[in-house]
Amino acid sequence: MVVQQYPISFSAKVLLFWFMKFFGISNRIKIFSLAFCIISLSLQSQSARQIVYGDDFVFNLDYETSFEAFGPVRYKDYFAFYNPVNFSIKLFDQESLSVASTINIAQEGPKSMYQSTGLMADEDDIYVFSYYKQSAHAVNEKGRESFKYVFKQEENTFGAYLATGTTVASANNEFIYVPILAGHDIKTMLADYRFPSIVRINKSDSSVSTFLNYPKNYKNMISGGLQGFISPTLNSKTESLVVSYPLSHTVFELTKNGIIKEHPMKSSAIDDFDGHYYKSQSDIKHEKSRAKYLENPSFSRLHYDAYSDTYWRFVNLPLTYSQMNQKEVIEAKARNYKVVVFDANFRKIAESDILEDVNLTLSAPLVFSTEKGIHIYAKSQENEEEMRFKTLKIK
């Protein structure tokens, strides 16, 4: 797959040369200008990057593990999935990609993690989120709890909720970062994006800080919560959290010192986000919020790849008119995607064409990295004994 390139136009430089010739500019200047064009084009061709497909990455499932398992996250020498069928964490060996052990999650008693949803890991523990208890629990390989944090009411502003299986939390040695979903006003049917979107918990003393209100364009009339599912990714080298909002060309970097930096990370597939906004309150009664989400482009997941030191920002492409007129619109089957790749300094280095056979819906498993590339959940899951991921890499 060849990516779209954005070099300085060579034809424009040639036009400039002939323009100078027409007006009698000296030969020395013309030769210098032409040499500059050739050198510039040569340097650009050397730095051109491609996004290519690698071999599929396939987990071998046991009889208990569901396709609805949440993960994977890297934990020590394993890939960890949370399995909602029997409330357990499945640890897959990173070599054989088969189940090596199972951690059972307590569903009753004072230390229960009832209705667990989200999952993340650091060097020492796996973290499970209990939606019912609004709490985060760190457990070791034996299922023993080593850390617990209960989210207080004042942190859940205007009915917002902590991370679930569709919003990704992150942790390093010092902090836990948890995305907070926007509240929703039942009367107006509008989402409320006035509040911070990231809660940061200090592991040493459980103190809490909040960061990053939604971008200014979220003050427009937006109904439904799909446009508010933010995608944070943790840069393991700088220890910064980089946050992507579905309706923003800009991503926001939260450094470990609490400083916020803004970086443009645009895609050629998105001009603006006007199609997601309602013009008036009365329009909300006649238009379906899910249709707005499906009919218009937006940004999907953001993933930092430590192996290549790059950021991969995925794009939700709009469904076509014929797709939207089907009796049942299944996003997991109908939605197409592309990806834009940026280097460590947030410079755009590649943009793909439409990606083949990938599923990036909010309920799909996570995007993750290995030395083999970036792995994205495949649309085609035909073998019940396998969970298949497509592989992309930059070269």
Features:
4-stranded antiparallel sheet; 36% strand; disordered N terminus; mainly beta; single chain; 395 residues
Would you mind describing this structure in some detail?
There is one protein chain. Helix 1 runs antiparallel to helix 2 (27-47). The chain has a domain at 1-48. The strands form seven sheets. Strands 1-26-25-24 form a four-stranded antiparallel beta sheet, with no helix packed on it. The chain is mainly beta. Strand 16 (231-234) and strand 17 form a beta hairpin. The chain has helices at 10-22, 27-47, 283-286, 289-295, 321-324, 331-334, and strands at residues 51-60, 70-75, 78-83, 88-93, 99-104, 116-121, 126-130, 135-139, 145-150, 170-171, 175-179, 183-185, 190-192, 196-202, 208-213, 231-234, 241-244, 250-254, 260-264, 298-305, 310-316, 337-342, 348-351, 368-370, 373-377, 386-394.
